[in-house]
Specification:
Helices cover about 45% and strands about 10% of the residues. By secondary structure, the protein is an alpha/beta fold.
């Protein structure tokens, strides 16, 4: 098993099915650590380093990785050249923000990771190249890639931090694996109220308002009651909220004696 295929990392998918994230000539240990954290956030663990400027291991990278993400660094493979780092891979993506004088497909990070998952399902090994912080990938690096990943950043400020670029790409990998709903309700300690519970609440208010003479004049009473029913019907209430509304009305009546 290559050194960048750990088997004891928590909350990760099968490493053999993951893309390899290759940091090419990274300059700052903090950015390597941030990249490790971003990878593990989204279930990735296979990191390779090409000629890190400050050598390896790097204490600043370890400090920045913090906790479990340090294991990504522990198992990171270190290589002298890009060709060696991607030698066992069958498809290579290269991230770049600059136009290149090379003929290559250019895809979004979303499309790239969609393709990476399809290739992984076929047993094909995939790598993603990330360039050094100051200059990005050189043409010699990109020449070894099958396709380019372009992230639609602000053209007036296109530079992404290494950790940010890794995070965006890792997020897209995870997004194609986890069926996360576009919207959901987060409950505290209560569930949605049932329709009968809302009906009883409406009955409670209608009865007390009727007793207080709210529905006046009589010719408009039915319309007013219907409007209140429609209001309760539009509201999405939890059981706790229904009980709160009951309690509010009871307290008002109690205070009135």
């Amino acid at each position: 098993m290559p050194p960048d295929q750990p088997s004891d990392l928590p909350n990760t998918a099968d490493p053999a099915l993951q893309p390899v994230f290759v940091l090419v000539r990274p300059q700052m240990g903090e950015n390597i650590g941030a990249a490790a954290r971003a990878m593990l956030n989204f279930g990735l663990s296979r990191m390779r380093l090409v000629d890190p400027r400050d050598g390896w291991p790097n204490p600043r990278a370890i400090a920045m990785a913090s906790g479990a993400a340090g294991k990504v660094l522990d198992h990171a493979g270190v290589f002298a050249a890009v060709a060696e780092a991607v030698g066992d891979c069958e498809h290579v993506f290269a991230t770049t923000a600059r136009r290149r004088d090379l003929t290559r497909p250019v895809v979004t990070a979303e499309r790239a990771m969609e393709q990476a998952r399809a290739m992984a399902a076929e047993g094909r090994r995939v790598a993603v190249l990330f360039g050094p912080e100051r200059t990005g990938l050189e043409n010699d690096d990109i020449a070894r890639a099958n396709a380019l990943i372009s992230i639609p950043v602000n053209p007036d400020f296109p530079s992404l931090n290494l950790g940010q670029a890794v995070l965006l790409t890792a997020y897209e990998w995870r997004r194609h694996a986890v069926a996360a709903p576009a919207e959901r309700m987060e409950f505290g300690r209560s569930d949605y109220a049932t329709r009968i519970e809302v009906e009883r609440l409406a009955d409670h208010y209608e009865a007390e308002l009727d007793a207080a003479g709210f529905f006046f004049p009589e010719t408009k009473a039915e319309g007013m009651k219907l409007n209140l029913r429609a209001l309760w019907g539009r509201m999405t209430l939890t059981r706790a909220e229904v009980q709160t509304f009951h309690g509010i009305l009871r307290q008002i009546l109690r205070r009135r004696g």
